[in-house]
Design goal:
The complex is a heterodimer of chains A (88) and B (575). Chain A has two helices and no strands. Chain A is an all-alpha fold and 88 residues long. Chain B is an alpha+beta fold. Chain B has two domains: 160 residues, Alpha-Beta Complex (Penicillin-binding protein 2a (Domain 2)), CATH 3.90.1310.10; 319 residues, 3-Layer(aba) Sandwich (Beta-lactamase), CATH 3.40.710.10. Chain B has 20 helices and 19 strands. In chain B, strands 2, 3, 4, 5 and 8 form a five-stranded mixed beta sheet that branches. In chain B, strands 10-9-19-18-17 form a five-stranded antiparallel beta sheet, with helices on both faces. Chain B has a three-stranded antiparallel beta sheet with strand order 1-6-7. In chain B, β17 and β18 form a beta hairpin. Classes of the chains: A mainly alpha (88), B alpha+beta (575). Chains A and B meet through α1 and α2 of A and β3, β7 and α10 of B.
Chain lengths: 88, 575
C-alpha cells in the first residue's frame, strides 16, 4: 500500500513538474512568435516605404527628365518604329 | 517542586470557560470561512478582474488602409506609419540645449517649440506626422514629458498627376475624394483587439483570447495606366499654358473593355501637401462639370439618320446660303458650304447641315438616342459629385431646340459621358459600361445603339474630319489612322452665350480596329486660338500617339509625310 502511494506521489510530482516546464516552454515560444510577428509587421511597413521610394524614383516625370536631359534621348520618329507581330 | 504537584492544577476552573474559548475559536473560524466563501464564490469577479488587470492587457491591433495600384501594379497610394510628437507641458522641463536639439530634429524654430511647451494644457501636439527615422532620433534623446504616438499617413508618389483620379484621405484615414471615397469601404481596414498576458518586462507571454481580429483594407488595382495618365496630364498642362486656358480635362478609354485608362484635370493640386486648396483645384471636371459639347454631337445626329434609313452617307444636303431660320432664330455656318453630302457635313462640321438632318426626326427619336447613349444621367461610377448633365424631356422641345441640339447646343454633358458615347462608334455600335478598376476579362457585348454598318460609316466620316479638308488635320498621328470630331462652343453665362469658348476633341484610333478613345476639353482658351481643331486636337494627337506606342498597338497606316495644319489650315468650324 505504502509503496503504491509513494509511486503515485512520484508520478504526480513528475507530471506537475512536466506541466510547469511545458507551460514555461510554451510561453517562451510564444514570446518568440510574438517577436517574429512584430518583425513581420515592421518588414511590411518597410516594404510599403520601399514601394513608395521606388514609385518616387520611377516617377514618369523624373524618368522623362533624366532621359531627355542627361541621356539625351527622344521619342522615335514615326519611320523609325517597326512593329512586329508576336509569334503565337 | 514538580509541575504535577502544582497547587494551581488542583484548582478546578469553571467548565464554561473552556467551552467559551472553544466557541470563540469556532466562531472566528466560521467568520473566516464565511468571508472566504464570500470572496471566492459570491463576489469573486471583482477580485478576479483586479488580479487580471495586473497581468492581462487588451491591446489594439491596428489595420492598414489598402493600397491603390495602377493596372501594371505601380503603387499610386500607400499608407505608411509615421509618428506624431506630443508633450505634457508640465513634465517637459527642457534645458535650453535639449530644446535646441529637439527643435533642430523637428525642423522648427526654438521659439515656436517653447511657445507650445508653455501652453497651459495637459496635452499638446508638437509636430504631427514626422518620418520614422526622425522619430527614432527624438526617442533616443529621452526627453522628459515628450511622447510619440503612431499614426498613418497616406502618400501619393505620382502627386498632382493622379490627384483627381485618386482623391485623398482625411486625418482619420477615411477617403474624402475620388477613388479614396468611392472605394472607401474596401480600402479602409477595421482595427481589432485581443487580450494577452504580459510578464513583468512587458513581453506578451500568452494569448488569452482574440476579441476581434483586425481586418486590413483590401488593395485596389485600378484600370488606370500610369504612363498614359502621365502623358495625358503633361500634354494637357502644356496646352493650357500655350493657350492660356482656364481649365481642361482629358479622358482616355480602352475601347475594347471600357476601362478608364486616364483621367486628367487641370488645375490640379498636390495631394501630399494640401496646405491651401481652392475649389477650382479640387474639381474633377471630367465628371463633375458639364459643358455644351458643340459639334462633337453631330456624329450622333448623323448616325441616327443613317440608322433610321432617312439618309445615306452620300445623300446631298443644301447648306447654302449658310443660314437656316427656324421660328425667329437663325442657325449659321462660319463659312457657307453649298451642297454637301452627309459625310461632308461631319467633315466640314456644318451646323445648317446637322440641323436639316435633325429636322426629319420626331423629338422622341432623338431623345431616345441621347438617353441610350447615357446623356442626362450620372454614370454611377461611384465618384463623388458625379453629375448627369442636362437633357430635357422631349415633350418640351421646340423645333429650334431640336435643331440646336443636333449640333450640341442646349444639351450639356460631362467629358466622361462624351468619351463613353463615342465608344458606340469605336465599337460596332454597342455601348459598354465604364470601369475604374482593372477588368480580368472584357465585357462581352454591350447595349446595341447603332448597327455595325452605321458605326462603320460614321467612323469613315470621322476619319475624313482629320484629313486635309476637315476641321482637325492636327489630330493626325503618323503611322495610324485616326478618326474624331472637333467641338467649339460658346460658354453659357447667365443664360447668354458669351465670347468665351470651350474647345473639345473626341476621337479614336486606329480606325481599322479602334483600341482607344481619347476626349479632350479645354475651357476658355484665351491666347487667340479657340477652335477645337487648333486647341484640343493637338493634345488628342500627342496623347493618342504616346498611348498607342505605350500599348504597342501596331500601326495601320502607310508612313507618309502628314500634311499637318501648318501648311493646310483647318476648315473653320461653325459655332
Amino acid at each position: 500500500m505504502l509503496r503504491l502511494n509513494l509511486a503515485l506521489i512520484a508520478i504526480v510530482l513528475a507530471s506537475a513538474l512536466g506541466a510547469v516546464a511545458s507551460q514555461h516552454k510554451a510561453r517562451k515560444l510564444f514570446t518568440e512568435m510574438e517577436r517574429e510577428q512584430e518583425r513581420m509587421r515592421s518588414l511590411e511597413v518597410e516594404w510599403g516605404q520601399l514601394q513608395l521610394e521606388q514609385s518616387t524614383w520611377a516617377s514618369h516625370a523624373r524618368i522623362e527628365k533624366v532621359a531627355r536631359e542627361r541621356l539625351r534621348m527622344k521619342p522615335p520618329a514615326a519611320g523609325q518604329v517597326l512593329a512586329v507581330e508576336a509569334p503565337r | 517542586m514538580k509541575f504535577a504537584n502544582s497547587p494551581l492544577l488542583s484548582q478546578l476552573l469553571p467548565a464554561w470557560r473552556a467551552r467559551f474559548v472553544a466557541a470563540l475559536i469556532l466562531l472566528a473560524f466560521g467568520i473566516l470561512a464565511a468571508r472566504s466563501v464570500w470572496l471566492q464564490v459570491v463576489r469573486n469577479d471583482f477580485l478576479q478582474q483586479k488580479g487580471e488587470s495586473r497581468y492581462a492587457r487588451v491591446i489594439e491591433l491596428s489595420a492598414t488602409r489598402g493600397r491603390i495600384a495602377d493596372r501594371s501594379g505601380d503603387m499610386l497610394a500607400v499608407s505608411t506609419p509615421v509618428k506624431s510628437v506630443w508633450a505634457i507641458p508640465e513634465d517637459a522641463r527642457l534645458a535650453p540645449a535639449q530644446a535646441r536639439e529637439l527643435a533642430a530634429l523637428l525642423e522648427m524654430e526654438v521659439g515656436e517649440l517653447n511657445r507650445r511647451l508653455a501652453a497651459e494644457k495637459d496635452f499638446v501636439f508638437i509636430k504631427r506626422q514626422i518620418p520614422p527615422d526622425t522619430a527614432e532620433k527624438i526617442a533616443a534623446l529621452n526627453l522628459p514629458g515628450i511622447h510619440q504616438q503612431r499614426e498613418y499617413r497616406r502618400y501619393y508618389p505620382a502627386g498632382e498627376v493622379t490627384a483627381h483620379m485618386l482623391g485623398f484621405t482625411g486625418v482619420e484615414d477615411r477617403g474624402q475624394e475620388g477613388i479614396e471615397l468611392a472605394f472607401d469601404a474596401q480600402l479602409s481596414g477595421k482595427p481589432g483587439s485581443r487580450r494577452v498576458i504580459k510578464d513583468r518586462l512587458g513581453h506578451i507571454v500568452e494569448d488569452v483570447e482574440s476579441i476581434k481580429p483586425p481586418q486590413d483594407g483590401r488593395d485596389i488595382t485600378l484600370a488606370l495606366d500610369a504612363k498614359i495618365q502621365y502623358l495625358a496630364f503633361t500634354h494637357l498642362k502644356q496646352a493650357l499654358a500655350e493657350h492660356k486656358a482656364r481649365a481642361g480635362g482629358v479622358v482616355v478609354l480602352d475601347a475594347k473593355s471600357g476601362e478608364v485608362l486616364a483621367l486628367a484635370n487641370l488645375p490640379a493640386y498636390n495631394p501630399n501637401n494640401r496646405g491651401k486648396l481652392t475649389g477650382a483645384q479640387l474639381r474633377n471636371r471630367a465628371l463633375t462639370d458639364v459643358f455644351e459639347p458643340g459639334s462633337t454631337m453631330k456624329p450622333f445626329t448623323v448616325a441616327l439618320a443613317l440608322e433610321k434609313g432617312r439618309f445615306r452617307f452620300d445623300s446631298q444636303i443644301q447648306t447654302a446660303p449658310g443660314r437656316l431660320t427656324i421660328g425667329n432664330a437663325t442657325i449659321s455656318d462660319a463659312h457657307p458650304h453649298g451642297l454637301l453630302t452627309v459625310a461632308q457635313v461631319i467633315q466640314k462640321s456644318s451646323n445648317v447641315g446637322a440641323a436639316k438632318i435633325a429636322s426629319v426626326f420626331a423629338p422622341e427619336e432623338m431623345w431616345q438616342m441621347f438617353d441610350a447613349l447615357g446623356f442626362g444621367q450620372p454614370m454611377k461610377l461611384g465618384f463623388p459629385g458625379e453629375v448627369g448633365g442636362r437633357l430635357r424631356p422631349y415633350k418640351t422641345w421646340r423645333p429650334i431646340e431640336q435643331a440646336t441640339m443636333s449640333y450640341g447646343h442646349g444639351i450639356s454633358v460631362t467629358l466622361m459621358q462624351l468619351a463613353r458615347a463615342y465608344l458606340a462608334f469605336a465599337r460596332d455600335g454597342d455601348l459598354i459600361p465604364l470601369s475604374l478598376t482593372r477588368l480580368e476579362s472584357p465585357p462581352l457585348a454591350g447595349k446595341s445603339i447603332f448597327s455595325a454598318q452605321t458605326a462603320r460609316e460614321v467612323r469613315a466620316m470621322l476619319e475624313m474630319a482629320v484629313l486635309p479638308g476637315g476641321t482637325a488635320p492636327r489630330a493626325q498621328i503618323p503611322g495610324y489612322r485616326v478618326a474624331g470630331k472637333t467641338g467649339t462652343a460658346h460658354k453659357l453665362e447667365g443664360g447668354q452665350y458669351a465670347e468665351r469658348y470651350v474647345a473639345a476633341f473626341v476621337g479614336f484610333a486606329p480606325v481599322s480596329d479602334p483600341r482607344l478613345v481619347v476626349a479632350v476639353m479645354i475651357d476658355e482658351p484665351s491666347a487667340g486660338k479657340y477652335y477645337g481643331g487648333e486647341v484640343a486636337a493637338p493634345v488628342f494627337a500627342q496623347v493618342m500617339a504616346g498611348s498607342l506606342r505605350t500599348l504597342g498597338v501596331a500601326p495601320d497606316a502607310p508612313l507618309k509625310p502628314i500634311q499637318v495644319a501648318r501648311d493646310v489650315a483647318p476648315v473653320p468650324e461653325s459655332l
